[in-house]
Amino acid sequence: MASIKPTIPKGMRDFSPSEMIKRNYIFDIIKDCFQRFGFLPIETPAMENLTTLTGKYGDEGDRLIFKVLNSGDFLDKTDISSNLALDAKTLLPKIAEKALRYDLTVPFARYVVMHKNDISFPFKRFQIQPVWRADRPQKGRYREFYQCDADIIGSNSLVNEFELVQILDEVFTRLNLNVVIKINNRKILSGIAEYIGAAEMITDITVAIDKLDKIGKDKVIEELKEKGLSDEALIKVEPLLDFKPITVMGKETSAYLDNLIGATAIGKKGIEELEAIFNYTLKIPLQTAKFEFDLTLARGLNYYTGAIFEVKINEEKSTFTGSLSGGGRYDDLTGIFGLPNLSGVGISFGADRIYDALEELNLFPSNNLNNIKVLIANFGNTSADFCLRLLHKLRQQGISAVYYPEEVKMKKQFEYADALNIPYVIIIGEDEMKQEKASIKNMQTGEQELLSIYQITTKLKTN
Fold first, then answer.
1. pTM for the full model?
2. What's the pLDDT tens digit per position in 69-94?
3. Domain's final residue, options 325, 360, 395
């Protein structure tokens, strides 16, 4: 019988040790930044009730939710004869009551409502966990991927938006990745929709504008026409699609926006919020990130109501076109779960996209990321006890060390150290044991020294 070649579903991946070491490098930087800004960790389950997730991401998002069939015979309580002619949308609630989480924000809103009596508001939380989307796999887009979220809920202050901008800047500065942080405000887009007489079409307008980079201006206009936007309204919308991002909120920009939103109160509120955030960045400048207002930034998710963010690579030599991070203000996401009027704002880092960007630009550190500092070579049973005692002592001193378990040729042991990027190898023979010393070899330079155990420990701690 022929063996079946093992495979994994498209859009899912295995990660080797070398990949995990790089991924943990990203996670560690993000986690450290979250904690230094006062965010607290939580986790939510991989699987949520389908009703928790649906209706929160728009029609396109709902289609990408991975549904989980009911346990056991999922057709057991379903009348097949009456449902055979039904469409999938009607049949789905009868055979699937659960789903894999699409993002971390909606489960977080559900968490806040369920644990509201145990939370001190404003609540600053971070979460680093995988999410799943039934999307078409392509470069930088996977069906299972990690998000690293930070949210502040229970406060309307725009200081929170500025803190999140600072976190974005801090993370990408530490990753040595040049980025541009784009900002817009959903209230401005709502003001435009109201001014052109299409307030009820705000979702259609934002979903279409969100595709501008991918499909171009003409296709966006075509989609808005198909959705029912009038020719008169399209004429007023067109200047928005031609907007060029700016880095300073001056009088000319405010006048331009006033012209687009007319006298709408919500639009003017959006402009005020945008100007306030820009003023913070003038008082406390960002480290390396470019910060710019982009009126065409829409963020397709339905729950955003105020400031919205997106981060893209600002490197000419990069071919990476996707966003590395995004987020925004949501005024009443918890309201759908029974806790109204609780405003929040958050950002999410796409760790997998950041990984791809760092790989493409060769920006991962060249030093030994795996943290294994030294390999103790195996010279056979005569030195085993000495080596194991030394191994124990090094680990007690906080030095990551390994002992080659078999007695094989030194060439093979050196090759093993090279394969794992271990910078030092300790060699202990009979002469070394008699002197209570060991030879330590620098695998990069080839230099070898005979040192006392104390000297070896000091050397490994300081290098």
1. 0.86
2. 887 666 666 665 554 556 666 667 67
3. 360
